[in-house]
Amino acid sequence: MAATPITTPHTPLFQSHAFLKPKATFPKRFSISCSSTIQDRPSLQSQSQDRVFNFAAGPATLPENVLLKAQSELYNWRGSGMSVMEMSHRGKDFRSIIEKAEADLRALLDVPEDYAVLFLQGGATTQFASVPLNLCQPDDTVDYLVTGSWGDKAFKEAKKYCNPKVVWNGKSENYVRVPSFDGLELSPNAKYLHICANETIYGVEFKNYPVPGNPNGVLVADMSSNFCSKPVDVTKFGLIYAGAQKNVGPSGVCIVIVRKDLIGNAQEITPVMLDYKIHADNNSLYNTPPCYGIYMCGLVFEDLLEQGGLKEVEKKNEKKAGVLYNAIDESKGFYRCPVEKSVRSLMNVPFTLEKSELEAEFLKEAEKEKMVQLKGHRSVGGMRASIYNAMPLAGVEKLVSFMKDFQAKHA
Ligand code: PMP
């Protein structure tokens, strides 16, 4: 393919962000294929013609301006003469990247000084083991409130390392709600109470949080699928963990925010890879960190701050989710979301079609319109639209308009 000059249709975006201005023209062999005008934030008009609206549950869509910034820095990161992928994973340049990412995340979530922020490998699944291995001993009791299959997986993994008890399980009702906290029989001696703050598959999201039964116990939350989608009072938690690949970056990075006094009591069998103390003492650099992933997370955090922080982000997410849930609820049963209204997720919207035989056609037609990954998780079927931070309102509006047309055709 012939080299493309830097005056691509994305030029207005480069002009509107000083940081995006390339310092030099790209070398000859470098080609970019971009095909539409992009303004400050992606909108329906501005969506690149070569990109789709990706409703995947994760890895998920990333902000276009973040992708373009990464693109502009890929070849030569800030004059270092190399890409982030080529630099030392413990050298000063990467250290500056991880430190900035941490500082921006701390600013976004107002993380207090007595909490450590760790950037780890292994995804959120690894934390299902790391949490019990680091926070308790084999005989310790811990509580799990299970509102979906991720919470259930976390519970099952914990059984290998301690004595977990399920204090509530929504499985028999197909995971459609969060229980009232008053009636829960929490263990008075549990080291922690674990919740999954947003169940990605079932679309059930905690809107407030339970308090552990043990006054010395802590609340632990898997926030993989609603991390940085709204403000969160970190002080309510002893530990928060989140796989990055939904709201804040690519797969392979997992962020742990943990109160410092909980660190350093790992079980003897804990592998160094999983030991929070080793990571905390070495600024997450001890094990080979997933550098490019952390760099991408850093760009996303910077972007979220530029959007005005998580209160603003939450407003946008509420608006998007409102548009979609309203369309479902007003469809006279053609579409249906089974989740109790008070705990419907702002991030993952599962819905079924009254005429389930139309599902394959729905997906096929949507794909033709460049709306992809709308199939529900294989364990539940139906549809699921994941509308994380980076999904523009235009994407949700396009989906809703498609749903209305589809209904008109098939009602
Ligand atoms: N917890 C939740 C809530 C998730 O949605 C996922 C992944 N979809 C996981 C844990 C597992 O994450 P990973 O793939 O990073 O191990």
From TrEMBL:
Keyword Amino-acid biosynthesis among record annotations: yes
Pathway, per record: Amino-acid biosynthesis; L-serine biosynthesis; L-serine from 3-phospho-D-glycerate: step 2/3
Stored Pfam families: Aminotran_5
Catalytic activity: O-phospho-L-serine + 2-oxoglutarate = 3-phosphooxypyruvate + L-glutamate
Cofactor: pyridoxal 5'-phosphate
PANTHER family, alphabetized: PHOSPHOSERINE AMINOTRANSFERASE
Protein name from the UniProt record: phosphoserine transaminase
Lineage of the organism: Eukaryota, Viridiplantae, Streptophyta, Embryophyta, Tracheophyta
